[in-house]
Amino acid sequence: MADSDFLTGRLLIAMPQMEDERFAHAVIYLCSHSADGAMGIVVNQPAANLTFPDLLRQLDLIPEGEDIVLPNLATRMQVHRGGPVETGRGFVLHSQDFIIDNSTMLIQDGICLTATLDILRAIAEGRGPSEAMLALGYAGWGAGQLETEIQENGWIIAPADSAILFDGAVDSKWDRALAKLGISPGMLSSEAGHA
Fold it and tell me: Which CATH class, in words, describes the domain spanning 3-187?
């Protein structure tokens, strides 16, 4: 596979026939993809019963019980289920206007990934990135696994879009990702096959 064939910085959109319930109607931003495997963050599955301020309190980044006025980004940021791997670890996809030396990975097109408490603290203090989304866990694939799933019609590949990554309209992200390709969900069959 040539470097140009790798899908880093692209979206994976689950096909309707996705058998793995964890990825039903998932939209995944691929943070890395190489011959060794792939890693991505699900961007359209909010975590149940966990808000960003609650998480900050659990991590002792803001004091328990105090009414603290958080910046706008921190109050509207949702916590997502990023995937089934390392679900106790936080990953922040964010805009390139905030970088932590030796901790932030520039992915592509101004999108970065940081997985330290420092970025959560910065967001809570209003000095973090202008756009961000927090996910607990990630989706991972071994060498050749993602390519096989794509060949078996499990995923459609689409260009990334910062609105799809960062806005709060979670329920429409799958439809909007398909629309970027000119596909209406009604056009997709739940039957898989190869021509």
Answer: alpha beta
In our burial notation (b when 16+ CB lie closer than 10 A, e otherwise), range 116-127 reads eeebbebbbeee
Domain ranges of the chain: 3-187
**Pairing mode, if any, of strands 132-142 and 78-81?**
parallel
Chain Cα centroid distance, residue 19: 20
Place of tokens 């101004």: 110
Task: Give me the pLDDT at residue 99, please.
Answer: 96
Burial call 6-39: b when 16+ CB within 10 Å, e when fewer: ebbbbbbbbbeebeeeebebbbbbbbbbeeeebb
pTM score of the predicted model: 0.89
pLDDT in tens, 66-112: 556 677 777 778 899 999 999 999 999 999 999 999 999 999 999 99
d(CA 120, CA 56): 8
CA distance 121 to 192: 45
The structure tokens listed for 112 are 């970065």
The token pair that represents 49 in the structure block = 């019963």
